[in-house]
From TrEMBL, chain A:
Record's keyword terms, sorted: ATP-binding, Nucleotide-binding, Transport
Subcellular location: Cell inner membrane
Top-level taxon of the source organism: Bacteria
UniProt name for this protein: Peptide/nickel transport system ATP-binding protein/oligopeptide transport system ATP-binding protein
Example GO biological process: peptide transport
Any matching Pfam family: oligo_HPY
Principal cellular location given in the protein's record: membrane
SMART domains, alphabetized: AAA
TM stretches of this protein: none
Family per record: Belongs to the ABC transporter superfamily.
TrEMBL record, chain B:
Name of the protein in question: Peptide/nickel transport system ATP-binding protein/oligopeptide transport system ATP-binding protein
GO CC term, one of those recorded: plasma membrane
InterPro entries: AAA+_ATPase (IPR003593), ABC_Ni/Peptide_Import (IPR050388), ABC_transporter-like_ATP-bd (IPR003439), ABC_transporter-like_CS (IPR017871), P-loop_NTPase (IPR027417)
Alphabetized UniProt keyword annotations: ATP-binding, Cell membrane, Membrane, Nucleotide-binding, Transport
Family, similarity comment: Belongs to the ABC transporter superfamily.
Entry's Gene Ontology molecular function annotations: ATP binding; ATP hydrolysis activity
Amino acid sequence: MRASDYVVLRTQALRKTYRVAGGRNLVAVDGVDIALHAGETLAIVGESGSGKSTVARCVLRLVEPTGGDIEVNGRSIMQLGSVSLASLYREVQMVFQDPTASLNPRMTVRQVLHEPLRLHLAMERSQREKRALALVDMVGLPAAHLDRYPHELSGGQRQRVGIARAIAAEPNVVILDEPTSSLDVSVRGQILDLLLRLQAELKLAYLFISHDLQVVRHVADRVAVMYLGGIVETGPAEAVFARPTHPYTRALLSAAPVAQWGVKRVRLRLIGEISSPIDPPDACRLVGRCPLEQPSCSRKRPPLLAVDAEHSAACPVVLGHEREAIPGAEALSRRSGGEGGATGARL
Amino acid sequence: MSDVLLSVENFSGAFRAADGRLTPVLHDVNFALRTGAITAVVGETGSGKSLTALSILGIQPATFVRTSGRILFEGRDLLTLGATALRAIRGRRISMVFQDARAAMNPVFTVGQQLAEVFRLQHGGSRDAAMAKAIDALRRVSIPEPERRARQYPHEFSGGMAQRAMIAMAALICRPTLLILDEPTTGLDVTIQSEIMELIVELGRSAGLTACLITHDLGVVAETCDAVVVMNAGRVVETGTAEAIFTAPQHAYTRKLLAASLLVPA
């Protein structure tokens, strides 16, 4: 359940377009509204080209949004200059996908951790050293690792350093951009446990960007499913996993393999590959790929419609019908029962 | 069903440093690939799964040396074959699909040219006939508009389409007895991944292929493979049918890997 009603991060009609050849526009993010509450985890789920990472980068102004608004702790960050942006990074920090690429190979762990303490908290050296020691301890690394360089650490240890750096300046929002995608599965669970523990201890709100549905199901309170630049379904994680409504959500969930014997998935299959994001028409994003397509789908882009109180999906076709009659729903609700899913689905 | 196509027997190997010192990385690896089956070799980083697969084709890194064991394919030890004999086996008898298909293809030739060239190397014939075979192979792996796609370069293909073309080359143009797939869907989106795996299973069945799937993803294995070899730190820790590995894993590492894949406590 939601930890708080206080919204730490809000985007409204967030839009990012890129000019491409021929004066056309590539629409990477198209009207995304999200509200992240204090202490909760909101997962943005999607595949390549969905715009999920662009949303994450816009929130930190690493990518300049083309339109819409972003508020962090009640303050719009759209007009911040470079000096005020530094103050934003006290409130919002990011953990990147590849811990090897996101750590300076010439800096020791100590130097990596001292930097945000010096820049954001203006700490003296002795204070920094004390805090750096506390930080490595919080992320489960021995103090001796402070003197190591990234190449002397394993992938999981490097990601722990990335996490320590992100929480160093005591932000209340952390953007996690695929934080476990480059890790082995046995390490993935440890890093997720660490993130969950830190969230509880430090009351952090996580914007969790991921394509890994297993991971999202494990950590998220709420989920937003993105496809081709827009949110097609959003709601509490258990509702979205138990009653996926939008055809894209169903296709995505029913395509994810499960490491269990005898799980039989009822697939909802999309046709072909993701459509072009260049000058997309005012139509449903799934037009041309959706097995449930109706003529009305091409006329206008459907808005998010209520499924339940907090669960909504942008598909009037599914919501106008008896949901259980459509493939992809039944298998998924079966898989959602119990930890790890697939209860009763063995053959 | 004891018909074994390839067996890795007591295979050990090491990396040789510049000063001649050996660092052992594979320890007494044993497993067999049954004819007509899809066998998964599963492991995490550093398990030795890819090194073992590359050794089958003789394309292991130059610093890797075998210290003992053999790899028997149709009664012959592949590790003792010379360059010419190996070349006769590569592609024709055993072919391979790599992780990043776009990187594995030549960027300056069209996809059709590359498939056609491999066809001519293996089977001879005219350029036009080879190109027709290439287009036919692209069609059979469900690439839309295969005539147009054959004229495109690898960079014009999406990751999923390039992997389809790679599979067309390795399985349909080469027509091998054994197909080795090294992480064929890693890096692909899950909706694309499941289609690629279905294609592999379907081709395996229809073409009577024996396949060896190198992967870290137990989810993919559960749905597609007949047998599983679990590797950890250069050793085979468990082998068995897929059903046995998933329903009654014996080794502690296998249990740990399964629990981690499902994110449940071990």
